[in-house]
Write a structure and sequence with these properties.
- The structure is a single chain.
- By secondary structure, the protein is α/β, with parallel strands linked by helices.
- The chain folds into four domains: 245 residues, 3-Layer(aba) Sandwich (Rossmann fold); 82 residues, no CATH class; 171 residues, no CATH class; 122 residues, no CATH class.
- Helix content is 37%, strand content 20%.
- The chain is built from 31 helices and 29 strands.
- The strands form seven sheets. An eight-stranded mixed β-sheet has the order 21-25-18-26-27-10-28-29, sandwiched between helices.
- Helix 13 crosses helix 14 and helix 27 packs parallel to helix 31.
- The longest helix is centred in the middle third of the chain and has 23 residues.
- The protein is globular, with a radius of gyration of 33 Å.
- Keywords: Endonuclease, Hydrolase, Nuclease.
- One of its GO terms (molecular function) is hydrolase activity.
- This is Restriction endonuclease.
Length: 790
């Protein structure tokens, strides 16, 4: 398969927005003369011809700042962007483009246009990660023939390697369009290989590679600047002596929107049908036992002037039951107190927060590290449900698109590699928990699917693929022993994959992954894929990890927003499908939280970055308009004379007096009524999971996001989780009800002894809910009896 590309107006508009800033700049291929003696020695040593000892660089901008500013404002007015009060840097230009619309394609097109109009030919693309670097390189590879046909020339592109000095020499000495792709760590870290760019090299004529590169006056293109531009990196970027800097992302930091020239945000991308429609399957537990010490350590915050704090998620007791909540904690924080007195947290007092080891220790000796989860009895059940729902969604979408020649892919994000693959005592790779669950659930869903899907060609396709070969992983691997490692322990002796075949397939061979003859359809990955990698045929994304405040929902869905392609490599966009684009292109997110929670967060993030452009011109009503439309409107009048009356003051004083009533009634009658009330009305909710399915229904403007009317629920369902009480947690059942009701221990004991066995058995399945519901019933019955005996 070979992917086909087409010219699209919005990409041409984005390229024009950058190029038109320099309207009036002469087109000059500018040459500079290198040191002859050095170049002669280098020529002899490397046997590389360099006629005239010349190199080529980008001609400096010859326009005045006044002309540049006038051009900038002209472009910003055209694109309805707030005017920049001044020109940031010389020159910083920002392009905002929604994930999945072809950001890399756009800046490659911009390079060709800048060369065509002004003769600029030296470009450096700075990326924050290996995943983005490989994705950019792959896009150059896939689009080279497409752009060669349009512009009649080709770009020479390469990935920077500290040992590949001949490529740097050609970058400087050749007059064609040259692009160097470099990872920010290649010039901003302290490793030996990293320092080579700043060191004079004997094999490079005693020159520093950074000086040779900087002499070309390169144009820097920063891909995902919010992930690149830390304070140290910004200083290092100056060493390239860039002619100008172009910055591309869908999620720029609000304080880094330097000279914004083009914006295609999430609202506009969806409205123009340039990305997939989003559907959400939210999965949540509708009850909880609270019978284990559930704790999730999300993050540790370090400060220079005070002790570290941590963000901890644990369960708290509310009026409506037990809920999970995140809190910022410090040393001495008592989980038992702040949970509302849940017995599971008795003895959990924070004794130490270790910022170096990223751990939190409790007074009872328990220790937890960042990213770890303790005691979540429902966690395994929820993960299995998520995997099952992803496979079911995959099969449903696949059955619809199979005859259209569209392969369906699903992506799982996990936070612990060992959950997918680990090693036995002999060093052999074996399945982790998620891989085992996946294969079990895949077989079960496949068996059911045979009774649902009647299309013979599709059934034949399903039956020829085994559960074992249809999933693959992409993780970090230590080159020394070829074992997968967690990303937080990575060092220079590793590459990114669980094996070379999976790495090549997932990262480099996008066309083969899209081929129906390739059995891999489900991809498991660490969060390394969260930025930079995407595939147009990802239709399901499932996050098998704890939610983190550092990971935005738009990042999670971004890996699957691109419009899909068929087996001919044709993009299934509005030109191919017309108004049916969003019938075929639907991305389903199987969220690790409730539907409401996920949707609220996603809408808030889109609303945060969306341009303030309403769907229709706003109509502002001033007071005069209101009076003419509603003639009965009057100003309210405050009658001070009434408030100041003595009788009013007396009434107010009487109402403020607190009253107490003493009620006396027989113990037997009281206990008997409470027993009958509990037997009749006590219904402790069983632990269930709830699945809600929704999809984007109406997305026109920022106002629709504000109203919360964007996603519409389309389906839902529930299921039961059979759990037993955890014997590790000891409950003072009588004491807890005494605390909540004010009754004596003897009265509570008589009540519990008197209720039916089936009523008391509810305590075994959900102890905390039993205590909450029983206490509430007792208090309501108490109030009723007080009224009857007044």
């Amino acid at each position: 398969m070979k992917l086909k590309f087409k010219q699209q107006k919005f990409q041409a508009d984005a390229a024009d927005a950058v190029c038109d800033i320099f309207s009036g700049q002469p087109n000059i291929a500018f040459a500079y003369r290198s040191d002859k003696e050095m170049m002669a020695a280098y020529e002899q040593a490397t046997i590389i011809a360099n006629s005239g000892f010349e190199g080529y660089c980008n001609q400096r901008v010859l326009l005045s700042d006044e002309v540049i500013k006038a051009n900038l404002h002209k472009i910003q007015r055209k694109n309805q962007i707030k005017l920049s009060p001044k020109i940031e840097g010389r020159y910083n230009l920002t392009v905002e483009m929604e994930t999945g619309v072809g950001k890399t394609y756009t800046y490659i097109k911009t390079m060709f246009e800048l060369h065509k109009r002004y003769g600029w030919s030296k470009f450096i693309i700075v990326v924050p990660s290996v995943a983005i670097r490989e994705g950019v390189y792959k896009t150059f590879e896939m689009t080279k023939d497409h752009f060669a046909e349009e512009y009649g020339t080709k770009i020479h592109y390469f990935i920077y390697d500290s040992k590949g000095l001949s490529k740097i020499a050609r970058f400087a000495s050749d007059c064609g369009i040259h692009v160097m792709i470099i990872n920010s760590h290649a010039f901003n870290s302290r490793g030996k290989d990293v320092r080579r760019i700043h060191i004079k090299q004997d094999s490079f004529c005693s020159r520093r590679p950074i000086d040779v590169i900087a002499a070309t006056n390169p144009i820097l293109i920063i891909d995902e600047p919010q992930s690149v531009e830390g304070p140290a990196t910004k200083e290092r970027l100056k060493e390239f002596r860039p002619l100008l800097i172009l910055r591309y992302s869908a999620t720029h930091k609000t304080d880094s929107l330097y000279n914004l020239v083009y914006r295609l945000d999430a609202l506009e991308a969806y409205h123009k049908r340039l990305v997939k429609k989003i559907a959400v399957k939210g999965i949540s537990v509708t009850g909880t036992t609270a019978s284990e010490s559930y704790i999730f350590l999300e993050k540790i915050n370090l400060f220079g002037d005070r002790s570290p704090t941590a963000i901890l998620e644990f369960e708290i007791k509310t009026r409506r039951g037990v809920k999970k909540a995140s809190r910022v904690i410090g040393e001495g924080y008592n989980l038992y107190v702040h949970s509302g007195g849940l017995e599971e947290y008795r003895g959990y007092i924070v004794s130490k927060i270790n910022g170096l080891r990223k751990t939190v220790e409790f007074s009872n000796g328990v220790m937890i590290a960042v990213g770890e989860v303790m005691g979540s009895v429902n966690e395994e059940h929820l993960r299995r449900i998520q995997i099952r729902e992803t496979i079911q969604s995959h099969f449903e979408r696949e059955s619809q698109l199979f005859n259209k020649g569209i392969k369906v892919l699903s992506l799982f994000f996990i936070d612990e590699v060992a959950n997918y693959k680990k090693y036995d005592e002999n060093g052999r790779a074996i399945h982790g928990e998620y891989a085992e669950i996946f294969e079990e659930e895949y077989q079960a869903v496949l068996k059911k699917s045979q009774q649902v899907f009647y299309e013979q060609d599709y059934l034949t396709y399903l039956m020829r693929i085994t559960a074992e070969e249809t999933h693959a992983g992409y993780f970090s691997v230590d080159k020394k022993n070829n074992r997968i490692i967690e990303s937080k322990t990575r060092d220079k002796n590793e590459f990114i994959s669980d094996d070379e075949d999976a790495y090549h397939l997932i990262m480099k061979d996008k066309e083969r992954l899209l081929d129906l003859n390739e059995p891999v359809r489900f991809i498991f990955s660490h969060s390394a894929l969260r930025e930079g990698w995407d595939n147009p045929n990802v239709f399901q994304i499932c996050t098998l990890k704890q939610s983190s405040s550092d990971i935005r929902k738009r990042q999670e869905v971004g890996r699957g927003l691109r419009l899909c392609v068929n087996q001919k490599g044709e993009r299934m966009d509005i030109h191919e499908l017309g108004e049916d684009v969003h019938e075929v292109n639907v991305l389903t997110v199987i969220a690790n939280e409730s539907y409401d929670s996920f949707v609220q967060d996603l809408q808030a993030e889109i609303r945060e970055t969306a341009a303030d452009l309403p769907a229709y011109p706003p109509q502002v009503m001033v007071p005069e308009d209101a009076r003419s439309r509603y003639p009965g409107l009057t100003h309210p009048t405050l009658h001070k004379q009434i408030i100041e009356m003595k009788t009013f003051e007396t009434l107010k004083s009487n109402l403020e007096v607190k009253s107490a009533y003493l009620v006396d009634f027989p113990d037997d009658e009281f206990v008997g009524k409470l027993i009958r009330s509990l037997d009749k009305s006590l219904k402790v909710p069983q632990i269930c999971f709830q699945i809600e399915h929704a999809e984007i229904d109406y997305l026109e403007s920022k106002e629709t996001l504000q109203s919360g009317e964007v996603l519409r629920k389309t389906a839902g369902g529930t299921g039961k989780i059979d759990l037993a009480i955890n014997k590790k947690v000891r409950y003072d059942l009588i004491g807890k009800i005494v605390e909540s009701t004010g009754l004596t221990r003897n009265a509570v004991s008589l009540i519990l002894q008197g209720i039916k066995k089936e009523t008391f058995d509810q305590f075994q399945t959900n102890p905390e809910e039993f205590i909450i519901e029983a206490s509430a019933l007792i208090n309501r019955q108490k109030a009723k009896m007080m009224i009857e005996h007044r």
